[in-house]
Amino acid sequence: MLSLDPFDRFDRLFARAREAGEPDASAHVLATASAGQPSARYLLLKGVDGGGFVFFTNYRSRKAQDLAANPSAAVCFYWPRIGAEVTARGAVERITAAESDAYFTCRPRGSRLGAWASRQSLPLGWRPWLVVRWLFFAARFFARPVPRPPFWGGFRLQPDVIEFVQHEPNGASEHTIYTRADDAWRHEVHFAWRIP
Predict the structure, then answer these.
(1) pLDDT (tens digit, 9 = 90+) per residue, 154-194?
(2) d(Cα 27, Cα 43) in Å, to the nearest integer?
(3) If you write DSSP's letter for every residue of 46-70 in order, what string do you get?
(4) What pTM was estimated for this model as a whole?
């Protein structure tokens, strides 16, 4: 039976992808665009709820700068082992500081130090400087908790459209497109055939 809630459908499909042994089912492409050219990169999904898809980054990164200029984006998941694809697009906003803090404290200590040391999307010039910076912050926070940097946190993509594609071995595919209308979702189903 077709779920009327696309997030419920995503959760079930995501669980299937993990059970099927996808190398990292949370990996997805995030596409952003400022006033200039669009850009895309792989990220890891860190949460999904009725509000949207959550990811984390350095607020000085290119993706964060794109989102500051144009707070909308698209994501794409592809799970070849189950022949499924999910795309979503919509507005993006920062999550609350409390939400970012909660996730940050769950990360391994080395990753928390890495958030301080990394100069994401900025030239470093000499690779060993990253290690030097990491060691500097390891000493700075020695024997005490590593706080979340003020320049690091999460975003939530709140989709207006979510599309589920089920690919069949014979080349047929079923596209179910959910569109948000006020506080409800409507959907329509399309069929296509890949021509080799």
Answers:
(1) 999 999 999 999 998 888 899 999 999 888 899 999 888 87
(2) 6
(3) -EEETTEEEEEEETTSHHHHHHHHS
(4) 0.88
CB atoms within 10 A of CB 184: 8
Rounded distance, CA 187 to CA 192, Å? 17
What sign does the dihedral 129-133-139-145 (CA atoms) show? Answer: negative
Q: What is the pLDDT of residues 88-111, one digit of tens each?
A: 999 999 999 999 999 999 999 999
**Within its chain, how far is the Cα of 75 from the centroid?**
7
Read off the amino acid at residue 34.
S
Is residue 41 within 8 A of residue 120, CB to CB? The reply is no
CB under 8 Å to 119, separation ≥6 — which residues?
60, 133
Q: Among all chains, which residue has been given the structure tokens 């990164």?
A: 61
**CB within 8 Å of 79: residues ≥ 6 apart:** 13, 16, 17, 20, 22, 25, 85
Task: Work out the burial of residue 193: count CB atoms within 10 Å of its CB; fewer than 13 is exposed, 13-18 middle, 19 or more buried.
Answer: exposed
Distance CA 88, CA 14 (A): 14
Structural domains in the chain, sorted by start: 6-108+150-193 (2.30.110.10)
- E strand residue ranges, 50-196: 52-58, 72-79, 84-94, 152-167, 172-181, 184-193
Cα separation, 50 vs 162, whole angstroms? 12
> What does the alpha-carbon distance between residue 84 and residue 98 come to, in Å, rounded to a whole number?
34
